[in-house]
């Protein structure tokens, strides 16, 4: 029996994931068959099932990779001088400056999750994990005085994720959007949502509470 080479195994696994992602972006989750993925990855169906038993398993692996990337990004943001400024810069790159096909792929998965319980469960798990990472980052910002302390970090993280998903959909609904102006307006909206209120507003809020 041949001994498994873990390095080559992981390399092939990543090749399959990349091929599957291209198929999903091009044809959608439902439109991309396992035969399409095999052809794109240049492997046989039997070889594919040696790595992934289903398309859902492939999606799960892709989202795990996305979670790892998010962990690295949020960690880097937390180490910077200003959480909100760094977060806005990253969102700008992710929404309008990066590969828009990734956003299209995630929106397709969101639609699929309404019909496919397996995909729905995968996305819910990843959402909870991403939300926890983002909430932790917002808490860090609150401790530094950079994020409004009156915001509930978990709820604010959920709202922010929904805001970002909606922003990604804008480029699909209206491809002719002025990316620069739209980005600036989004940054203003998110900044106003996250930043602490002015001293005057804070004083009024404390007075209203009887503090």
From TrEMBL:
Keyword Coiled coil belongs to the record: no
Keyword Repressor recorded: yes
Positions of the HTH tetR-type domain: 10-70
Molecular function terms from GO: DNA-binding transcription factor activity; transcription cis-regulatory region binding
InterPro entries: BetI_C, DNA-bd_HTH_TetR-type_CS, Homeodomain-like_sf, HTH-type_TetR-like_transc_reg, HTH_TetR, Tet_transcr_reg_TetR-rel_C_sf
Annotation: DNA-binding region: 33-52
SUPFAM superfamilies associated with the record: Homeodomain-like, Tetracyclin repressor-like, C-terminal domain
Annotated Gene3D superfamilies: Tetracycline Repressor, domain 2
Keywords, sorted A to Z: DNA-binding, Repressor, Transcription, Transcription regulation
Listed PANTHER family: HTH-TYPE TRANSCRIPTIONAL REGULATOR PKSA (PTHR30055:SF226), HTH-TYPE TRANSCRIPTIONAL REGULATOR RUTR (PTHR30055)
Name of the featured protein: HTH tetR-type domain-containing protein
Species lineage: Bacteria, Pseudomonadati, Pseudomonadota, Alphaproteobacteria, Hyphomicrobiales
């Amino acid at each position: 029996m041949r001994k498994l080479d873990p390095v080559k195994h992981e390399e092939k696994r990543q090749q399959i994931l990349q091929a599957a992602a291209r198929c999903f972006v091009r044809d959608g989750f439902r439109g991309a068959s396992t035969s399409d993925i095999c052809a794109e990855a240049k492997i046989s169906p039997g070889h594919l099932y040696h790595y992934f038993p289903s398309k859902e398993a492939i999606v799960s692996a892709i989202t795990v990779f996305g979670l790892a990337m998010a962990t690295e990004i949020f960690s880097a943001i937390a180490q910077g001088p200003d959480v909100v400024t760094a977060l806005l810069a990253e969102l700008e790159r992710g929404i309008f400056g990066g590969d828009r096909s990734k956003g299209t792929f995630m929106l397709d998965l969101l639609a699929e999750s309404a019909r496919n319980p397996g995909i729905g469960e995968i996305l819910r798990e990843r959402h909870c994990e991403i939300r926890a990472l983002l909430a932790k980052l917002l808490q860090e910002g609150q401790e530094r005085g950079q994020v409004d302390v009156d915001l509930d970090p978990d709820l604010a993280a959920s709202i922010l994720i929904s805001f970002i998903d909606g922003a990604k959909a804008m480029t699909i609904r209206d491809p002719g959007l002025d990316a620069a102006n739209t980005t600036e307006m989004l940054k203003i909206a998110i900044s106003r949502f996250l930043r602490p209120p002015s001293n005057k507003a804070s004083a009024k809020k404390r007075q209203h509470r009887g503090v």
